[in-house]
Every structure is written in structure tokens, then in C-alpha cells.
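Predict structure. Chain length: 105.
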Amino acid sequence: MDLTTRDVKRISRAVLLLAAAVLLMGGQPPSSQQAKLEGAIIAAPRISPEDAHRRVAAGQALLVCAYEDEEKCGTMMLEGAMTLKAFESKLPGLTKDQPIIFYCA
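Prediction complete.
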């Protein structure tokens, strides 16, 4: 099977999101109540918008717009958030205990 550049990008993003979810959970395997691994899709723990805002404002978490489309992300950008592309560039420098909050509308 030949993979296109688009396929490789999608797979890379799925792997990055999976790695980010593991980082979010402190590097520990997810419990069945916290998250389920179904292919490359993870159901991460949810938090309230108020809790997310508090954590981001206090510098305790990164806020990432989960849309691949930069234009769509631009219309949905919340205060203190970064694009998925910006997050991907920061990923190598993040620690395992760095809380990351992904959002989409």
C-alpha cells in the first residue's frame, strides 16, 4: 500500500495527539474510566470551560485549538490558545507532566 503525503500527515498528527494525551495523563496508562484507546482516537477526561480558563490563565496548562485547518482555528481561537501547528512545534520541548487542554467547537 502506497501512502500519500496527506496520509502520512494524518498519521503523524494522530500519533502526536496520542502522545499529547499520554503526557496529559502524566505518562501513565489510561484507566478504563479515564480514557479508552480505539484505534488512534482517545476519549480524554473532560473539564469545565471555567476550570480550563482558570488553569490556562494561571499558566498551569496549555490550551490548544484541535482543528488542523488554521483558518477554522483562527475563527475559533480562544484567549491564550495556540494552533495545533504551533503546539506540534512545541511538543518536543514539553515535559511529561505538562497539562494540555485541547478544544474544538
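Summary: The mean pLDDT is 75.
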